[in-house]
What we know:
Layout lengths: L3 E3 L17 E10 L6 E7 L10 E2 L2 E3 L7 H17 L10 E7 L8 E9 L13 E7 L1 H9 L7 H10 L5 H8 L6 E2 L2 E5 L2 E5 L10
Parallel strand pairs: 2-7, 6-9
Antiparallel strand pairs: 1-11, 2-3, 2-5, 3-4, 3-8, 6-7, 10-11
Helix pairs in contact: 2-3
Amino acid sequence: xxxxxxSRPGPGEExxxxxxxxPRPASTVIVLRGGSDSLEVLLVQRNPNARFMGGAWxxxxxxxxxxxxxxxxxxxxAAVREVIEEASVDLGDPADLIPFSRWITPKMVKxxxxxxxxxxxxxxxxxxxxxxxxxxxxxxxxPQSALAAQQAxxxxxxxxxxxxxxxxxxxxxxxALTEHAASLTVxxxxxxxxxxxxxARILLPGEPGYDTA
Length: 213
């Protein structure tokens, strides 16, 4: 089910009562391993002391730096840089990244990003290591095991991470996922927040109530 009801926003999802903030360009990489045999994704845990998404388990990523320019090239450069910084893995040529999705933070959220999600296979011989400052831990999970751990209260996952794990969970292997993604036309997704008393209800395009939220 795509609708999410939360009694309070997660880290980095605090609501904004004022004018909408301008979303900042950002990139995230779903790093895959398993080849044609299986599918696992790399999750890193953000420092619990961080102001934004502290303690959450996420895919490596972050905002585009000004020196990286604008447009798709800047997003790809930022994606490669962020994986190096957060997980010590060099993905190589940014042009090899596979665009998968684009999510824009809801207008009601204080800190907003316009984030492109890319897919990339873990390079042969690479061993991820967290930087110990921005990210303090890492783990490989199947999409199903990560979602189960979240349901059991063992992993703190934010809404976009959950939705991407749900989206890729039907694929049997990393290769099958990237072959599928190569044929996609990426369209922006901007969730909306509907307040029901003290409950924030997150809606995706096409769901009942989205157009009036």
